[in-house]
Design a protein that fits this description.
Blueprint lengths: L1 H8 L6 E5 L12 E3 L14 H4 L2 E14 L9 E17 L4 E6 L5 E5 L6 H4 L7 H11 L5 E7 L9 H12 L6 H14 L7 H8 L4 E6 L4 E6 L4 E7 L11 H15 L16 H26 L2 H17 L6 H11 L4 E7 L6 E7 L12 E4 L7 E5 L1
Parallel strand pairs: 1-6, 5-7
Antiparallel strand pairs: 1-2, 3-4, 3-14, 4-7, 4-8, 5-6, 8-9, 10-12, 10-13, 11-12
C-alpha cells in the first residue's frame, strides 16, 4: 500500500486544477489554485515556516468491511458479525501550516480545498460540490484538525461495491487528523461525519474499520455497543465477489428501510431486541416483513458465531444463505444480479454458503468456502480472497 502511495505520488499531470469546494450561503469561500507539473506537489511548502515543513506527516490505512452476517441490524439495536479486510484506503496527511486542507484522490481528477473550522451543519456539509467533498468535510467538522496541509488518498477498495469504502476513508482521515480514544469513540465521530454528509448510516461500518482484529470477526451487540471477537477457523476461506452493480447509499432506498424499521419499532420496540413471537403484533404486512428479517437475522448471527467457534463451517454457510433469502424476500434489498451470483457461488463444490453483504441494492456477495474452492480468476466480475485484519492505525514519519 505504501509503495502504491509512493507511486501515485510520482504521477505527473500537466495543468491539473485544484478547485475549492462550493459551500452554500456564502459562509465560507476558498479561492481556487492551479497546480502545474503534478498534483502531488505541495503548493504551500515554499511559504510554510521551517517548523511546519518539518512537522510529522501522518499515514493511516482504513480497512474495508465485509459483513459475514447481520445486515440492517445495526440501526435496529441488533447483532452483526463483520470483519475488517485487507483491502483499504490509505490517507497521507502532510501538515503545511496553511488555513485549509487540500485533498487529492486517485479516484478523482481534480483536487479540492476545504477550510479548517467547518461547522457540523448538514446544510453546509451535505450540500457541498463536488459530492465527494461532503464526507471529507464531515470529518473535518467532527474531528476538528488544528493545522492545514495536504492529504493524498489512495485506495484498493472498489467504490460502490458494498465494502464500506466511505467508512474506510472516514476512519483513516479521522486518525491522521488527530482523533484519539477507543475504536468506538473514533467510530462515533465517523458516523456523525457520514450523517452530516447526508447518509444516515449506523455505527457498524466505522466501528469495524476502526477496531477490527486480525484473524477474527467482530460480534457486535448494538444494544450495548459491546464487541466480542470470534476466531475464524484456519480452514475457512472468505471470498468477496463484486456484482458489478455499483451504488451509493444516498441513491438507494436505504433511508426508506430505516424509516420502515422505525415505524415497526413504534409497535414492538427496537427490532433487534424483539423476539420473533412479538411480530404477531404488527398488522401492516410490509412492516411485518421488515421486522421479521431483523429479528431472524439476529438469531442467525448468534448461530454463525457459534458455528465458527465450533468449526462447523457447513452450518455457518447454511445460515449465511438463509440470511440472503431473508434480505431478498423480507427486506427487499437484493437484486436479480445478486441473487444469480449467490446461486452460482453456492453451486461450486466446497462453498459452504453465500449471501449479499452490506446494505444491498447492488454491491458485493461474500462466500464462505474451503481453501481454494473458488477460482476467483474464472468469475465474470472482480473477486478477492480476503482475510480479517486489524483496524485503522496511524503512523508518523518526519518530512
Amino acid at each position: 500500500m505504501v509503495a502504491a502511495l509512493s507511486a501515485a505520488g510520482q504521477m505527473r499531470q500537466s495543468a491539473l486544477e485544484e478547485t475549492s469546494a462550493t459551500i452554500p450561503d456564502g459562509r465560507v469561500t476558498v479561492a481556487p489554485r492551479v497546480y502545474s507539473s503534478g498534483c502531488r506537489r505541495m503548493a504551500d511548502r515554499a511559504a510554510a515556516p521551517e517548523g511546519a515543513r518539518m512537522s510529522l506527516a501522518r499515514r493511516a490505512t482504513g480497512p474495508g468491511r465485509v459483513n459475514l452476517i447481520g445486515d440492517h441490524t445495526d440501526y435496529n439495536r441488533g447483532l452483526a458479525l463483520p470483519i475488517a479486510i485487507d483491502l483499504g484506503t490509505t490517507v497521507e496527511f502532510t501538515p503545511t501550516g496553511s488555513s485549509g486542507i487540500t485533498f487529492f484522490s486517485t479516484l478523482h481528477r481534480q483536487g479540492i480545498t476545504l477550510p479548517l473550522g467547518l461547522p457540523p451543519d448538514p446544510e453546509v456539509v451535505g450540500t457541498l460540490e463536488p459530492s465527494w467533498a461532503r464526507l471529507v468535510a464531515g470529518v473535518i467538522a467532527t474531528v476538528g484538525p488544528e493545522i492545514g496541509g495536504v492529504c493524498r488518498i489512495v485506495t484498493t477498495l472498489p467504490v460502490g461495491a458494498g465494502l464500506s469504502s466511505s467508512a474506510a476513508l472516514a476512519t483513516a482521515l479521522a486518525k491522521v487528523f488527530g482523533a484519539t480514544g477507543s475504536p468506538m469513540a473514533v467510530a462515533k465521530l465517523c458516523q456523525q461525519a457520514e450523517n452530516l454528509s447526508g447518509v444516515p448510516v449506523g455505527i457498524m461500518d466505522p466501528l469495524v474499520c476502526a477496531g477490527g482484529r486480525a484473524g477474527s470477526a467482530s460480534l457486535i451487540d448494538f444494544s450495548t455497543l459491546s464487541v466480542e471477537y470470534v476466531p475464524i477457523p484456519g480452514s475457512a476461506e472468505i471470498v468477496v465477489v463484486d456484482s458489478g452493480q455499483h451504488r451509493t447509499l444516498r441513491d438507494t432506498k436505504y433511508a426508506v428501510r430505516v424509516a420502515e424499521c422505525e415505524a415497526a419499532a413504534e409497535t414492538i420496540g427496537p427490532l433487534g431486541l424483539a423476539h420473533e413471537s412479538d411480530l404477531a403484533q404488527l398488522r401492516d404486512p410490509l412492516l411485518l416483513k421488515r421486522a421479521r428479517h431483523v429479528a431472524s437475522e439476529c438469531r442467525r448471527v448468534r448461530q454463525v458465531a457459534e458455528a465458527l467457534v465450533s468449526g462447523h463451517l457447513w452450518a455457518a454457510g447454511t445460515y449465511m444463505t438463509e440470511s440472503h433469502r431473508s434480505l431478498a424476500e423480507d427486506f427487499g434489498v437484493s437484486t436479480p444480479g445478486l441473487d444469480s451470483l449467490v446461486d452460482h457461488l453456492r453451486s461450486i463444490d466446497g462453498v459452504y454458503g453465500a449471501r449479499m453483504t452490506g446494505a444491498g441494492f447492488g454491491g458485493s456477495v461474500v462466500a464462505l468456502s474451503r481453501t481454494g474452492a473458488i477460482d476467483v480468476a474464472s468469475l465474470p466480475t472482480p473477486a478477492w480472497r480476503v482475510t480479517a485484519t486489524d483496524g485503522t492505525a496511524v503512523n508518523h514519519d518526519r518530512r
